[in-house]
Amino acid sequence: MPTLVIAATAAEAAHVPPSLPLVITGLGKTAAAVATTRALAALESLDDLMVVNIGTAGSLRDDVSGLYEPGVVLNHDINADIIRSLGYDARERLVVGESSVVLATGDVFVADATVRARLGERAHLVDMEGYAVAWAAHEFGVPVRLVKHVSDTADESSMEWPAMVAASAVVLGDWLQRNC
Questions:
Q1: What end-to-end distance do the CA atoms of the chain give, in Å?
Q2: What are 57-81's pLDDT values in tens digits?
Q3: Angle at the Cα of 85 (from 82 to 91), degrees rounded to 5?
Q4: CA-to-CA distance for 18 and 20, rounded, in angstroms?
Q5: Cβ(7)–Cβ(162) under 8 Å?
Q6: Are 58 and 110 in contact (CB under 8 A)?
């Protein structure tokens, strides 16, 4: 099955096998959605394609560390209740697999214990691109897998993220080597 790898930063994708096509989106939901959409629209065929979004994630719970493939991704910084009250479907929750792990995606770089605790009530992990990549893939009818490695604890220590990315990139590259 052909695979298209999507990552936010070159640092996170440093160990992607060279045989796999790679798109670097930039940080945040908007950049990820646009770059993923452009990449999918440029392909001659989407037959049997699998999109794999790799990247780092913050842990929203003390017992969460390591590598995960979330089964659900949430758009955590949309006011879904208000949108539903206006008669629209917010589609803030996308099912992307069978795992019980939930990834919350938003444009907020979570580095605050209070925000971490609030998000931790609904999700295990937090990132800034997963939902957008999943949305774009779903809109094109292409299956998507989200593969996230915990790089930080989504609190004040998250400001050390740049120093932690290299270790996560090795784990993500190993996963791709074994699974794609």
A1: 8
A2: 999 999 999 999 999 999 998 888 8
A3: 70
A4: 5
A5: no
A6: yes
pLDDT in tens, 75-127: 998 888 888 899 998 889 999 999 999 999 999 888 888 899 999 999 999 99
Nearest to 180 by CA among 50, 15, 12: 50
Q: CA-to-CA distance for 74 and 91, rounded, in angstroms?
A: 9
Strands 67-68 and 144-152: antiparallel
DSSP strand pairing (22-24 vs 67-68): unpaired
* Element at 130 (helix H, strand E): helix 130-139
β-strand partners of 6: 23, 53
Burial class (CB in 10 A: 0-12, 13-18, 19+), 178: exposed
Instruction: Judge if pTM exceeds 0.90.
Output: yes
The per-residue DSSP string of 6-28 comes to EES-TTTTTT--TTS-EEE--SS
